[in-house]
Design goal:
The protein is an all-alpha fold. It folds into 2 domains: 58 residues, no CATH class; 189 residues, MetI-like fold (Orthogonal Bundle). Helix content is 80%, strand content 0%. The chain has 13 helices and no strands. It is flat, with a radius of gyration of 25 Å. It starts with a helix and ends with a helix.
């Protein structure tokens, strides 16, 4: 298992280099100069030249990219053009907000999605099943920014129940967390329903019913336990998407998370902050994918047996080679 984890971590290195190269190239070749956004229209050509010299913007592309990679490996993501603060400090100050918002959205999506998916599968073709499938189709199709604006108009402007922006109390999390969880809720509900329908038709479920097990035990202990692996995949990948897709929600609800930080940095062409923020999110998403694989091994004993059997075969082959 440790060897597998180490191998996966090594595979993250070229992925991070590729993400950095794409982001660096997009910021480098996009129109406009950072000096124009940071210094303003009243800046002279001498001021812009001094700004480019101080930030190394007058160097060739490859030199700047290699220097950035070398510094990033050491944990230095550069200095923000606008605040003159280390990029890593601004990222670490904003990331907990995004993580908390994504975690609340994921909990809501998984709990409600699995519950509705199991009920929909058990009550197949009933009114509840048809209603939840319609909700799932709507949830997958809704644009998140439009949904967020409509929720603000309804619950904040018209009804006045919830605050429209910011994160100063638990009420502020309700609208953005629900908006952020909509797509994941629909995806989790559809996958749970599909996996449960396959599991319910298996022979071991009929055997459990024939032994006199209660319906709750049959559904939750036998059917759901064997249908949970695809659900873990959807839930894990959805949580990774939440970290990257929170930028839209944070912009709509004026939340100072890492998504809004990156969007604001793009508008001012603050390249170090954009590159550092995207690279940080990419590392977080890769670690989440690694955690999903580890949860697989914990939940499914067949995967654990593959690792243990591989070790036994290797040790046996080593002993035979020693004897011969």
């Amino acid at each position: 298992m440790l060897r597998y984890i180490f191998k996966r971590i090594l595979m993250m290195i070229p992925v991070m280099i590729g993400v950095t190269l794409i982001t660096f190239s997009m910021m480098y070749f996009s129109p406009g100069e950072p000096a124009d956004y940071i210094l303003g229209e009243l800046a002279t050509e001498e001021d812009k030249a001094l700004f480019n010299e101080q930030n190394g913007l007058n160097r060739p592309f490859l030199v700047r990219f290699v220097n950035y990679i070398v510094d990033a490996v050491q944990g230095d993501f550069g200095i923000s053009y606008s605040t003159r603060q280390p990029v890593i400090n601004e990222i670490l100050a904003s990331f907990p907000t995004t993580m908390k918002l994504s975690l609340y959205a994921e909990i809501f999506a998984v709990v409600l999605g699995i519950t509705l998916g199991v009920i929909s599968a058990v009550k197949q073709y009933s009114f509840i099943d048809n209603f939840t499938r319609i909700l799932a189709m709507i949830g997958v199709s809704l644009p998140s920014f439009w949904e967020g604006l409509m929720l603000i108009i309804l619950f904040s402007v018209v009804l006045g129940w919830l605050p429209p922006s910011g994160l100063t109390s638990w009420k502020h999390y309700i609208l953005p967390a629900f908006t952020l969880s909509t797509w994941g809720l629909a995806a989790c509900m559809r996958m749970t329903r599909s996996s449960m329908l396959e599991a319910i038709r298996e022979d071991y479920v009929r055997t459990a019913r024939a032994k006199g097990q209660t319906e709750f035990v049959v559904i939750m202990k036998h059917a759901f336990r064997n249908a949970v692996l695809p659900i873990i995949t959807v839930a894990g990948t959805d949580f990774a998407k939440l970290l990257g897709g929170a930028a839209v929600i944070e912009t709509v609800f004026s939340i100072n998370g890492i998504g809004k930080l990156i969007v604001d940095a793009i508008n001012t062409k603050n390249a170090p902050l954009v590159q550092g923020g995207i690279l940080f999110v990419a590392v977080a998403m890769s670690l989440i994918n690694l955690l999903i694989d580890l949860v697989y091994a914990f939940v499914d004993p067949r995967i654990r047996s593959q690792y243990s059997s591989g070790k036994r075969l290797k040790s046996k082959s080593g002993k035979k080679a020693t004897v011969s």
